[in-house]
Amino acid sequence: LTRWTRLQTAYSGSTVAVMSEVFKFPLIATAIASFGGGLGEVVPVFKQALLKKPAANAWISLCYTFNNLLYFDALSALSAVAYQVLSQSKTIFTAGLMYFIVGKRLLLRQVAA
């Protein structure tokens, strides 16, 4: 889809980043309904996420949003292979930041995974 939009129209990395975040909500609702106790649990889970400490992980989501904006903008200038390598390194950088900023150490099993 991203390649098609690059070839058909003017590519906007910020539009792709925002739309990718919007498309996550139905997927999250489906996952909650499938694995979290049924369709009746979707609204209470969303309410709890919005009302109970909504800003607790806001800085993490802001970092990922900023990251996605940069990645999708980079996709307009990089080849598909270079983008995949850069994208797959996100996990390594996240683990490093968790260690240096938050102070969380990973178990050997988590590093191996």
How is this structure best described in words?
- Helices cover 75% and strands 0% of the residues.
- By secondary structure, it is mostly helical.
- Helix 2 packs across helix 4 (58-75).
- The mean pLDDT is 77.
Oligomer: single chain
Poorly predicted runs: none
Q: Could you tell me the strand content as a percent range? A: under 5%
Mean pLDDT level: 77
Distance between the termini: 29 Å
Task: Count up the helices.
Answer: 7
Q: Give helix % range.
A: over 70%
Question: How many E strands?
Answer: 0
Find the structural class using helix and strand composition: mainly alpha
Could you say which overall geometry the principal axes of the C-alpha atoms support?
Answer: globular
Largest sheet: none
SSE pattern: HHHHHHH
Using only C-alpha atoms, the radius of gyration works out to 17 Å
